[in-house]
Structure formats: structure tokens, C-alpha cells
Design a protein that fits this description.
This protein is mostly helical and 279 residues long. It is built from 8 helices and no strands. The C terminus is likely disordered.
Length: 279
């Protein structure tokens, strides 16, 4: 039985693959090749299992020979030599079992190559980051063309110009892509074990959220600075927060957390010594 960690990694890879297959981002050629090899070997294994189930060589041969013996005895005919046919049936069954064993081992090896040969940080840095840059650029280009169209109220596009309606469609498509990128980021980060310091994922989307007045674990009644609607929020990320919106690896998240910790250290109240004789 495959261990839970491996099953989780496979689930994360499936999440990443879904976005790539939808065309939202690319994947490393090595991963694509490994997945192709795994798919081919799995197909061969499935076909071999089908052949083995259809074969049933030894049992079928024994049953047929038993019937032939009974028929020959009843007809008073001499019995044919059974050993050669039994040996052929045994050899065919043994070959089928060996083929299954080889293909099962090959499937496990191909799966291990996919799962353990994939680094989430590579996917994030070399494939998700460029896709995010492209997505944000699309939004920045489309946003000024909206005119009086409110992305949170699509009905406002009914009397808008063609240019404004096209801009709205471009932004709505960008929202779908952006959400797919963030899902892939979470999955890829999980492949590498996730961030070590930034357990709250405060730096997963913005490099310095505190610079934009994002409450980092502050009072629950303190509002977030961005609009709630996904399209309006993405416009905010692509324009107001353009310098802060990023696609970090787990290590980069932890670095951002450490930098925040260093920035705020001097602002924290100094502890007062309670040791007699001084501060």
C-alpha cells in the first residue's frame, strides 16, 4: 500500500497538472517527460492485467484436458500425451506472471521518478512566476479600458463600449488564471514541505503586506485593504499593490517573514529587567 505522504504528493501533483492542462502555466520538461513515461508504463500494465485475466491458461488447459480424458475413455480411444500441453500452459502462465511483476516494478519506479524528482520551488520560480507576471500585466492593460464598467457588477457592461466589455472579459479570464496559479503555488509549496517560519502564509501573496496596511494577526475587526470581489481585488493587486504582489517559493516566504521580524524588532517594547539593582 502506498504511504499517506506519497498519496498526498500525488494529489498535489494532480492539482498542479490540472492547471497546466488548462493552459494557465507551463511545467518543467523533465516533469512532463516523467509523467509521459509513467502514463505509458501504466497503460502497459493495464493491458497486461487484461491479458492475464483473459488468459487463465493453466486452469483452462487442465479443465479441457480433463474433459478430453473422459471423452477418450468413454469412446475407448487411447489417451493423448498430456505432459507437453500442460508444460506449455505452465510456461505461458509463468511468463504472464513475470510480465506483470516487471510492469508493476516499472510502474512503481516511474511513479517514484515523478513524485520524488519534482521540486516545487522549481515549478514556482520557473513556471508560476512568469505566468503571474503575464497575468498581472494583462490586468493592468485592461483595467483603464473598463470605463464605467464595475467588475463587481457585470450588468454595468450592458451599455458599455466594445472595448470596455472586452476589457471586462480579459479581467474575468485573468481571475480564473490567477486563482489557478495560487492553487498551483500551494500545491508546489506542499511538495517541498511548505514554509518553515511563515506558518500563517502571510507572505504567500504579498512581499510586504504590512506596507499595505494588511493586518498580520491583528484585530479581527480591522478591514483588509483590498476589495472583496475577486475581479476588483485582482485589479488592486495588479495596480495598487503591483510592487508587492509576488509568487514566492517557501524559502522566499520565510525570508520575507525574517525581514519583517527584523523591521519590527526595533519597534517592540523593550523588556524591563526585574533583577535587583538596575534595568
Amino acid at each position: 500500500m502506498r504511504d499517506p505522504a506519497t498519496r498526498q504528493q500525488r494529489a498535489q501533483l494532480n492539482n498542479i497538472m490540472a492547471g497546466a492542462e488548462a493552459g494557465h502555466y507551463s511545467l518543467p520538461p523533465s516533469l512532463a517527460q516523467a509523467l509521459s513515461a509513467e502514463a505509458y508504463v501504466r497503460h502497459q500494465l493495464t493491458e497486461a492485467r487484461g491479458r492475464q485475466l483473459a488468459l487463465g491458461v493453466l486452469d483452462a488447459t487442465i479443465e479441457a484436458l480433463a474433459e478430453e480424458v473422459v471423452d477418450a475413455a468413454g469412446a475407448g480411444k487411447p489417451l493423448a500425451d498430456l505432459s507437453e500441453r500442460i508444460a506449455q500452459a505452465e510456461a505461458a502462465e509463468r511468463l504472464a506472471r513475470l510480465e506483470m511483476s516487471v510492469l508493476e516494478m516499472a510502474t512503481d519506479a516511474a511513479s517514484s521518478s515523478v513524485i520524488y524528482g519534482t521540486r516545487g520551488a522549481t515549478i514556482i520560480a520557473e513556471h508560476l512566476k512568469p505566468a503571474l507576471v503575464e497575468t498581472l500585466a494583462t490586468v493592468r492593460t485592461a483595467a483603464p479600458k473598463l470605463g464605467n464598467v464595475d467588475p463587481a457588477r457585470p450588468e454595468t457592461a450592458l451599455r458599455a463600449s466594445d472595448a470596455s466589455r472586452k476589457a471586462l472579459v480579459a479581467i474575468e479570464d485573468a481571475v480564473v488564471r490567477y486563482q489557478a496559479l495560487r492553487r498551483a503555488q500551494r500545491a508546489a509549496s506542499t511538495l517541498d514541505g511548505g514554509p518553515g517560519a511563515d506558518k500563517g502564509n502571510w507572505y504567500v501573496e504579498l512581499r510586504q503586506p504590512d506596507a499595505l496596511n494588511v493586518p498580520l494577526g491583528g484585530p479581527a475587526d480591522r478591514p483588509m485593504p483590498w476589495p472583496e470581489h475577486p475581479a476588483a481585488r485582482l485589479i488592486w493587486l495588479a495596480t495598487v499593490a503591483a510592487e508587492q504582489t509576488w509568487m514566492p517559493t517557501p524559502a522566499e516566504q520565510d525570508q520575507a517573514f525574517a525581514e519583517w521580524n527584523e523591521r519590527t524588532r526595533s519597534k517592540r517594547p523593550r523588556a524591563v529587567s526585574l533583577v535587583a539593582g538596575g534595568f
